[in-house]
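S2.1 Query sequence (KCNKI protein)
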Amino acid sequence: MATTSQPPRGKTTCKKIFWAVFPHACFILSLVIYAFLGALMFSHIEGTREVTISEEYRTFLQNLTYLARNLSDNVTENEKMFKNDIRELFNRADPVWFINPEERWSFFGSLFFCCTVFTTVGYGNTYPVTRIGKYLCMLYALFGIPLMFLVLTDMGDILATVLSKCYNKFGELQSKILASKLCSGSTCSKRNELKSRAQSKIVNNEPLTIMELLKSQSGMKWGPAKYRNVELFEMLIARENENTQPARNKSMERWSSCPELAREKTVSRVIENFDKIGKEVEKLDVPIVLMVLVIFLYISCAAGILPRWEKKMDFQEAFYFCFITLTTIGFGDTKLEHPKFFLFFSLYIMIGMEIVFIAFKLGQNRLIVLYKKVISFCAEKNVPSKIYPK
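Output structure tokens follow.
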């Protein structure tokens, strides 16, 4: 038979890592491509729209000019009336009148708008004006929001795995430290001896297999009836060996000679990775206080960095803005002067939304457990006690 050269182990491990990371990278890359395509679409539609002066805008300018001309030299007399009229006039004004579409709907501005759409933040300071833009915004959100939640769930599994492993490692380390403090040398050695004796007893008490039983009794003389039992035993052993030996599948032999046929196995593993999305978040069992502390520290780090390019923000305002963003509330009361710089902050938003998503999932699980306890307690109280005869 001709010997076939097998690929080196380094290449196989790289392939395994690639196919393990492929589902996660696929989701993130698809979201990035979706955001860039949306930015190109909205910048073309909303940025190139014709600016027409409406009748409402003409009336607004006329009223503003009238108030400015009728303002007397003595400002203190008409100051209160002037402030009320100006406030009422600007409340009726449309912000679109004072926006240059080319500046607002540049590529980076449109990309920022797309991020606010599929993350469901929606600050409200940027929104489509044209009819086609509104229809496309609804269609874009219809596919973008599920894709965003899919990415959040997938990346949430990775964060949940990291958090659970760190929490378990910390618990193991804490238990080892406590055990080393409580356990002295003599008592520990005695316990180890008792454990080893118990394990040896367990090993010695294991049942013998059929082969061992026949070998131990091979020196004994058997009668003719007993020989038949031995033949039966040998037949059972042969059948047992057929079942217990690893079945040499012909496909495995083909994989060793022709590695291209192993793709079906790889594809099945990738499909299993897709099927396991959301399982780690469901299995996560971390104290909710720890998650609240992680969210507080995460937002505090961003609140310390954000005022560096947003000069009108202090730490408290930035903390409030980050919390409103990560919880996808997005009032829009705090506006950004430099959305281009904030786009580089989008990775922070993604990870932060995943952390908040995990915290909400943990809180939801805790609430379900609490409701179950309350309902079972109320049911036990309402069930009448059985009256037994004396």
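Residues 201-206, 247-257 have pLDDT under 50 and may be disordered. The CA atoms of residues 32 and 205 lie 61 Å apart.
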